[in-house]
Amino acid sequence: MAQHLAQPNPVDAGVSTDGLDCVYMRPSETLTDTPLHYCPGCAHGVVHRILMEVVEELGIQEKTIGVAPVGCSVFAYHYMNIDMQEAAHGRASAVASAIKRILPDRIVFSYQGDGDLAAIGTAETIHTANRGENILVVFINNAIYGMTGGQMAPTTLLGMKTTTSPTGRTVETAGFPLKIADIVATLPGTCYVTRHSVHTPNAVRQLKKAITRSFQYQKEHRGTCFVEVVSNCPSGWKMTPLEANKWLAENMFPLYPPGDLKVPGERSKP
Amino acid sequence: MAQHLAQPNPVDAGVSTDGLDCVYMRPSETLTDTPLHYCPGCAHGVVHRILMEVVEELGIQEKTIGVAPVGCSVFAYHYMNIDMQEAAHGRASAVASAIKRILPDRIVFSYQGDGDLAAIGTAETIHTANRGENILVVFINNAIYGMTGGQMAPTTLLGMKTTTSPTGRTVETAGFPLKIADIVATLPGTCYVTRHSVHTPNAVRQLKKAITRSFQYQKEHRGTCFVEVVSNCPSGWKMTPLEANKWLAENMFPLYPPGDLKVPGERSKP
Amino acid sequence: MKHELLIAGFGGQGVLSMGMTLAYAGMVEGKEISWMPSYGPEMRGGTANCIVIVSDALISSPILTSFDTVIALNQPSLDKFESAVRPGGLLLYESTNVINPPRRTDIQIVPVAAAVEATKLKNQKTMNMIVLGAFLERSHVVGTESVMAALAKVLPERYHHLLPLNETALRRGMEIVTKSEFRYQISDI
Amino acid sequence: MKHELLIAGFGGQGVLSMGMTLAYAGMVEGKEISWMPSYGPEMRGGTANCIVIVSDALISSPILTSFDTVIALNQPSLDKFESAVRPGGLLLYESTNVINPPRRTDIQIVPVAAAVEATKLKNQKTMNMIVLGAFLERSHVVGTESVMAALAKVLPERYHHLLPLNETALRRGMEIVTKSEFRYQISDI
Amino acid sequence: MVRGTVTFNVETCKGCELCIDVCPQESLALSPGINTQGYHYAVLIKDNCTGCTNCALVCPDAVITVYRENTKKKKVPVATITGVTENISVTIDAEREQP
Amino acid sequence: MVRGTVTFNVETCKGCELCIDVCPQESLALSPGINTQGYHYAVLIKDNCTGCTNCALVCPDAVITVYRENTKKKKVPVATITGVTENISVTIDAEREQP
Amino acid sequence: MSDVQLMKGNEALAEAAIRAGCNAYFGYPITPQSEILEYLSDEGRQRGMIVLQAESEVASINMVYGAAGAGARVMTSSSSPGISLMQEGLSYIASAELPCLVVNVNRGGPGLGTIQPSQGDYFQAVKGGGHGDYHLIVLAPASVQEMADFVYDAFDLADRYRTPVMILADGALGQMMEKVRFRDYVPAEHIPPKPWATTGKPKTRERNIITSLHIQPEKMEQINLRLQEKYRDIGKNEVRSQSFQTDDAEYLIVAYGLAARIGQGAVEMARAQGVRAGLLRPITLYPFPSAELRRLAGQVHGMLVVEMNAGQMVEDVRLAVEGRVPVEFYGRMGGIIPSPDEVVRALESIVKRDVAQHAEVY
Amino acid sequence: MSDVQLMKGNEALAEAAIRAGCNAYFGYPITPQSEILEYLSDEGRQRGMIVLQAESEVASINMVYGAAGAGARVMTSSSSPGISLMQEGLSYIASAELPCLVVNVNRGGPGLGTIQPSQGDYFQAVKGGGHGDYHLIVLAPASVQEMADFVYDAFDLADRYRTPVMILADGALGQMMEKVRFRDYVPAEHIPPKPWATTGKPKTRERNIITSLHIQPEKMEQINLRLQEKYRDIGKNEVRSQSFQTDDAEYLIVAYGLAARIGQGAVEMARAQGVRAGLLRPITLYPFPSAELRRLAGQVHGMLVVEMNAGQMVEDVRLAVEGRVPVEFYGRMGGIIPSPDEVVRALESIVKRDVAQHAEVY
Ligand SMILES: Cc1ncc(C[n+]2csc(CCOP(=O)(O)OP(=O)(O)O)c2C)c(N)n1
Ligand SMILES: Cc1ncc(C[n+]2csc(CCOP(=O)(O)OP(=O)(O)O)c2C)c(N)n1
Ligand code: SF4
Ligand code: SF4
Ligand code: SF4
Ligand code: SF4
Ligand code: SF4
Ligand code: SF4
Ligand SMILES: [Mg+2]
Ligand SMILES: [Mg+2]
Q1: C17, C39, C154, C155: which to substitute to probe chain G, counting the most G Cβ within 10 Å?
Q2: Interface TM-score (ipTM) > 0.85
């Protein structure tokens, strides 16, 4: 945790930090200085930071390769200071599978939105997990297509208004919200499937633990780890960040409750 | 059951049928006279016949539209005397969904192999079921790619030898057999998910009931019905038909046990 | 007559609707018009802009890199588009939150403290109308009546009670800009 | 020299390996050869065929519609390919299970009761070798030694104990065809 | 024992033997000869068929038609009474009644 | 009460107010002014920050650095004994021991 | 003027689809055309259209296949990467001869590229990006008005020839607002009966089969010959192009879609400078107005093809004129729209060279 | 002769891939090329290759993207419908400049079509079936021997230019057995270092990023200009074709792949009949041997393009000769292979017409 003791030069000169230790600062090595392009309050930023904190703290920057498909987080490579590949929409887990098979001793993760992972990428998601690829899949579930301007996603809640469900999602036209993590958890190839959020400090702390665990399991070749982050999309939801996080807790958790869906028993792969 | 009483002209003149009623004959209306091109003992033929028996007995020939994608059963339209569409590999359920939405009062089914439905068609399968499309999906699971010459399918058993798993399927290279019916059963869009076979007369009788039920539910707009038929592929398995059916019961049933995975409680769609 | 203009600012400052109002006004006057918004992910982070062309003749390209007029509603937009004003053109900007004013000497530069005025009108949302008024006063691309007619189209029915307020804002914009002496005369060039 | 031939029958009658043996034999003799199997779903239902070309010159197309020789191992193949034999060409067929023999008068027709002979050899699998022997006797496309050498390549190691049996079958085929008078002489044409 | 029989469309039989395997009466076998498709086809070799339809059900090629004797007896009238001018009463003994 | 403070990289703040919401001390608020990105940015408005890091954890833009006083007291020697030539025994009264 | 409206190209196209009696839309969001799906999800559904947001473009195009096969008037829309995913489906649809409309609001590629306007998908649209010998009828609108008008034409052509029709626009045409007036159109008067559709087999007819599979080469060749025959007919009957100041033109600009508008601007500027320029604008990219270009090749001294790509349609122009006149190319890529004055500069260089040559000659 | 073997084209290609040091194969079964996947699943795995049967062609091509981006020598293979599904991925790979080999064993289309041999995917392969301005280097083998040899060339070209390379064969070349001898090839001597690959970022270098996204049009145009520059280089350096009896030829047959073998047969027959025929066989379909064709256009009286499709390469031939000589086309479709004598008949008709014309002239 070297960087936690490193003394940064405080930006607003006003505050005095004499005799105080720095107990929290952004990861200095793994997170670039590029300002994030996300909308104010967007969860993507938090998850990016946490991921990079873990990479920095585990000292695996040199071994980690990330894959981010198109979606608002397509620019992840601007912010994460590690080798990265941008993937076609929905194919991140296939791309990550291939990278991992070529470089089995590297730590590989994909970072995918719900439109990406649960709609166009459904087949790749299921088969990556079913093959038990030794990677971490980070699943940002904000129940909407953020980047393209707020269309309905497979994860969109019933009754939820989006630009393609202007009167609210109905079962007749669009079917039910897809709980893909629950599906993935049933597959023998996965070793750790868990659902988190970043709307409170404690939630963030939990997520960080989950990601750390996932990388640990990956080192042990336990199979696929799948971390869902129930996220917000203030812009797509047409709410303020505070409203969005409140709405998230009240409306998304009932359907997507935080917690572990699957934890490793004995290694699922001999 | 009109056609059951109709007296056919017996083919081999030798046998006398005087004073006997015809208690079983191939469906005369819905099954064409074209000889099936399937290999000797192939389950496809039985399932074709049963499907058409039900269509004939329910008197829905005029209302029924079938979709068969590429796979050994791509020629289904040579045999089933109903309007049919041939679909691209993996897309049958998407094609069927569209047909049903255009013609909601018709009875629509897709007839798909395991390579088709559980590999390339995974996304379409899951989303068709998740939307609760009012169709019947008939899933012929013979644990192999028959038409292309016996390659491994997602459903191929561990240790099973195929042309692409010459030393037997291993988890390391190919992951686990995919129990897609179990996944589909978890989706709220489905109303009836059941697994059958045609390797014994009783199994055939059961399958016929299941298909009849499925069409009934479709009339009631209950959502997606999914009927898996654990099938054989003597050619792909390199066995005689008798060996194949024996092997099927001994090796496939443990992983794909026959029986209902989901039966309708109260209607899953309001 | 052909006028090519760019309006840029933060999302939420009413950049797009301001442009659309102009376009409608042009339509009301039977002119050829095109309205081209910035679109897609570059809107993340909250900046928006649109290009409006009002012309008597057919319009070839709706997307341009230099303009007769640039209206900048914030510092980043000002920095980004100052150079896009054609020599002799007009650069009109909301000055309240601008720390580094434009430097060019070959164009007409008009600062408008619209935010301040908007506060006086007790409705920050009128800011863009004030700026629009200022622009109309300077350019006469379309008539004020046409703009009011356009507003009636652009504003959803449920906001029509705000039409008078918008007119007031428009006129206020016109007043303050006539008062404001501007730093460089076209003649300077 | 160039010989184009088609072998057709049920899957399992050894159609493909028969062709491959010929091809290898041609290779052994340093000839240009191509072997083209029927492939894909038309194999469902159990018929198979392959086209073998043995030539001194470069081979252009591996797929043809007419042949110097057609070897038919069953009735359907006979019916389907009788017409594909070039005038003056050779039609050789396994006659045991054939109900409707060929009718053409402009080609050489050689029925071979190979199945019967195979039963005598107590191994139905030798049927195709008997037919092959008959063909070699009639056409001399490749030498018997080359064919034996080829067999050693085509047969997987674990079946090499069967080589002698295959040779016997080959020779048996040669004998019976010399005995069998055939219905039409080339001279008839 | 119910009397039945089966007929085969021999030309479409592929000799897969599935019918033979499921016949409880062991009434079926493959013919030594082959059909024009080259298959040894299934034939009835005994007259003990009960018309249970097992064979037809498992046949992949819809080759088999099954017949069975009709076990339901037609009702036979016990009496014919005509020209009735006055009320009469008729009774039938239980034994002779049809089931 | 532990003493802490926070610093902001104001130019990268987007004024989402998430930090403000989670501060147990209500030490934060948005500034009336805006940064060059046009956002009212978060600032420390009280000196009661405990350095709990809540704000930094939820900040989507990694704007915040948190400082806290080091509560671990350094050990102070209770005596210095030098030039010992013979065995001696030293005892320290429990009270004066460090926790 | 009463019913003139100010609309985005994407919205105008969607509105026209509703008015054209389009029964169903299957699509997936992608910039810069998501407004089509969004408009139809609202207006379209309200006005009785089946609008299904599919799980992917692959599913979309196959749903179009199914719906068209069931006799519906049906469409999908996407942008470059999404259209690439539809290539297999398009080949199937063309082969099974199913009428439908596919809209490509072209963005800058290759790869994920940019979402800005581009004409980089010309080859894919015109030569057939899918496998096998097939073609789409390809219409290239140049204004919001045409984004609407061509929808009617597209559906009618699709039905007349039982073939997929593509409207190939670009991001700018999709996103910009212009004036649009909707043509009167009564679907019932245009939509033909579809006796071949799989609507359920009555006793009175043979079963209908929608397929593109023909294992026997002879049969498959027949299918292909029929398709080629159809493409010849289309080439005879449906070529459309627009001329601007070509009568006395010595130099011809050839451009389609948005680039044609730039070209028109350039022609005006060039003429102002005394260069006798003209513009030929292909409206149907397939079938291509080759005859008209051959005719003009006899008249002009040189041609300049202007595209928002690296040079694609220029090949069809060269194929048409077969060396009779020099054919130059000017293009911008990656989402950049050339300005009329760049085009004029490019034109001038041709003029200069041409004059120089003549100098030599005489 | 010792190491001459009798092999199927698909197997020879797969064997060559192993010998070329191909690290990984990702693919999905489809006739007529499944033998590639099958051979590699057995031999390839035994010899240390990563062989993954993907869930689809879409997954396959994106796995190729990932593996190539991670620095591996990697390939996939499929046949027409499967290749259509790869178009988006191919566009990404070309844009991200990732080296890889893609094999298309062409079958008859469009749609599901037939599994018989065809050349119907020429346009898709050469003009870019995917979106945007990109090209694949396309090699067209004509024998089982070349099915093997071109694998080495393909991988080397892919690495040299950081571009996807396609081997475009047909069902017959994949399925037929011929003699083949494997060239000596030491991968280590050919495979260059790949400092751009995402292998994990050491402190000593900036992070590597594999992407095809460039939101700013200016940037995206730069990428495109670089790609076009690369394609020009490839055009300069890598054109390959084969001539047969062209020196004194008066009539030229132009054909590639299997059709070229038929063409060769036809040339011999024609010459036997006294017609001075020759054959030019493009080996690289992209870059296309236009210069050589232009040269021959100065020599011959006419050209006959022979393809197993409705006429695709013929366009590139016409583009090359620009009307200098008449260019006729003869093709068969749906999986039918033309016979040498059909071709000769087609050639004769040209000869007759040509002679007639000359008659007029003198
Ligand atoms: C093949 C293809 N189809 C569609 C798109 C357009 N597109 C880009 S991102 C995206 C989905 C974004 O939603 P999500 O994956 O949930 O990510 P988010 O932006 O919500 O974080 C879509 C549909 C594309 N780029 N490529
Ligand atoms: C896009 C595409 N990929 C691959 C193929 C080749 N193909 C045809 S059928 C088939 C799978 C057959 O297996 P299955 O679906 O299980 O049906 P079965 O033959 O076993 O009944 C494949 C891979 C194809 N036709 N199209
Ligand atoms: S659109 Fe939604 S997901 Fe995308 S950056 Fe904005 S808030 Fe985040
Ligand atoms: S290959 Fe298998 S599935 Fe196909 S017909 Fe033969 S036995 Fe049936
Ligand atoms: S009907 Fe029953 S008893 Fe008769 S042959 Fe068939 S299986 Fe045997
Ligand atoms: S089951 Fe049918 S096909 Fe098989 S042997 Fe019996 S009759 Fe013949
Ligand atoms: S560190 Fe804790 S107390 Fe201090 S400002 Fe942040 S949230 Fe408030
Ligand atoms: S959470 Fe971060 S970005 Fe949001 S207001 Fe606080 S400091 Fe600014
Ligand atoms: Mg999302
Ligand atoms: Mg199967």
Answers
A1: C39
A2: yes
